[in-house]
Amino acid sequence: MIYDTENTITFEPSLPPWFSSSLAIQDIETSAIEEIIEEAFLKLKQNFPKYQARKDQIQMSKNILLSLLNEEVFVLEAGTGIGKSFAYLIAAMAYSYLKGSRVFISTETKNLQLQLVEKDLPLLTNILAPNFPFEVAYGSANYLCKVRYEETLFHGKHLDLIGETELKKFRQWAQQVFDGEGFGTQFEYPGKISAEFWKGVFRDSDQCPAAKCYHYENCNYYRAKAAWEKARFVVGNHHLLLYNLLNDKRILPPYDALIMDEAHGFQKTAFRVFTLSYSRDFLPEFQNNALRRIKGEDRIPDEKYTETEELFQKASDHWQRFFSFWEVELNLNFEDDKLVLITKPTEYDSVILESTLMELHEHLEQMQENTEEGPLFNFLRGATKSAEKALRFVRAYQKMKFESHVYWAEKKNGNIHLSTCNLKINEELAENFVEPGVWTSATLGFWNKQKAPRSVQELSSGGYFNYFIKEALPVQEMEIRKEIYFSPFDYPNQAGLYIPKHLEAPAFGQGLDLQRKYENKLFEEIRYLTDLSRGGALVLFTSYYLLEACEKYLLEFDLPVLSQSKLGANNALKEFKQDPNSILLGTTSFWQGVDIPGDNLRMLIITKLMFTPPNDPVFQGRCKLIEKQGKNSFMSLSLPEASTMLRQAFGRLIRSEQDKGIVAILDSRLLKKNYGRTLLLNLPPIPLMTSREKLQEIIQERKFFTKYRSPQNE
Predict the structure, then answer these.
(1) Is residue 162 part of a domain?
(2) Domain range spanning residue 366?
(3) How far is CA 326 from CA 276, 388, 413, in A?
(4) Mean pLDDT computed over 635-661
(5) Does 500 map to a domain?
(6) CA distances (Å), 443 to each of 58, 258, 329, 494, 517, in order?
(7) pTM for the predicted model, two decimal places
(8) Which of 342, 343, 482, 540 ranks highest by number of CB atoms within 10 Å?
(9) Residue pair 338/411 in contact by the 8 Å Cβ criterion
């Protein structure tokens, strides 16, 4: 281990410790690289009896290592059960040793992020490389801040949001963190605290003075960052990776290769991160908070306070005029709960607003520079950054770029919000993704034809990865390698697909009576299916409204019902795993990243297809860009996204060779619409039943649910 000129730890190239060859590092060739992977999996099999070696998994790992060493971009779809996490982790470990490099591993969900650092990596490093350093990294708002924590206790802020017993427990934990135990993330805290209380004590990146803070030497966040710099693997998530790019790569230590798991979700995360959004109330609230904070401060003379008050008032007045103009311009002054796309520029002159915000920003910056380090300095630092961000937002609206951006207004609870997002975000990000990278998921591709492909070669040459590469992959002039590995599971014998043709398609905008009729039939079908399996059912919804209505219906019957709406996602999942006869009702977060192997999940019910809502402004903007190119936005955007979510949901049922059960999709559009066949062709091959009689036959033939069904149910 050595240090470079910037005191960031780097690593000397070496052979992986599990590799028995006496070759010198410079003599390593392709054949030896394959041996490195083979020996790793052999040692894994020898030391971990439960591990099942798979030929495709080993080949995948070899190809990942070769791709990284050749500095390629590797787009890789690996079906459920291949074991892609072990494949890329072993390949990346070998790469780290051979190149002396750090690798950043990114996930979409925290479930997978925690699985990697709490389960997969401890197992692999213990067997293959006991001294291999890895760390988990979160965004700074997940870390406790000592300065803000002390301010909260001193001023008594937010203490009404936490009970006396829980506060005592939290204080004990915080002291342990400040004494050097752990890194102080909210995930380490053993109790439960409200999100509102945590907002008062987490690290605010805008306010943090970094090395100028008097707690810097013992700061738990910077202690975590120091640990990242000593690690060969840093395991983060897409949001943190993007935020690092937004901040000129100052948050994460340098890395030489990138593993992007759950890559199908990267683009949507990028749209969320890069959206600028402000409300009319923002500046008045900013003004009130700032003036309340600095009032009475001995270090701020009365005349300076008065000047600050006047500048804030001036900026606030122009800010509110700007938002009120758009409210009238878009006919939202007598509306509420409405969203409107902005499709053309206006003649409103925001130069005065820009100049007043610049003046406010410069004033706050000067106050910060003239203030000694401490809580007031930190607050002014944050206030300066807030003014700078608001200024950037106004400039974005002053020079609108309709060829590449989308702009919209939304009226909610009487308050108007203005937002903008770059629609060509992959082009903007491309210059930042210069490292070799593996982009992988079980659902990266989309087969947009009505006829099933006959081979992997036909899939790849037929444009299977076109949507992902063109729409989501932020790379520039790099070699792109593409591969597909199918799931090893025996879907035709392990599962059945039920799509009831007697159930009407979801009712959209057809009146309240038709909607109620649809809901009643849907709920009755869910009850029928959950009774067949005697629980062990995960029911996936696209809205909380339908989930809560279904919960009310099912509570009238005998099986336990667990609702994400009432219990929260984590608690509902935990209770579901403990009760094999329960029914779990979940929304979007349960469609992906949830692993429930075994009999606890034997009936998966997808209530309807998940299409992106047509009023989603980013989606609308993307559709318009596609249509300007002469393409069909439904086939080019809506259908691929719906296919990805359907495949993700479908993948919740079969998680191992022993799992068996039924996937029920209660959306007859799959049978009645032309695009239904396309969506079905993107699912694994599986017997399809469209009637209850056929469903009963396959359940009896395959002996599904036998363990849980009494004779009278047969």
Answers:
(1) no
(2) 275-422
(3) 16, 22, 16
(4) 95
(5) yes
(6) 20, 19, 42, 20, 34
(7) 0.91
(8) 540
(9) yes
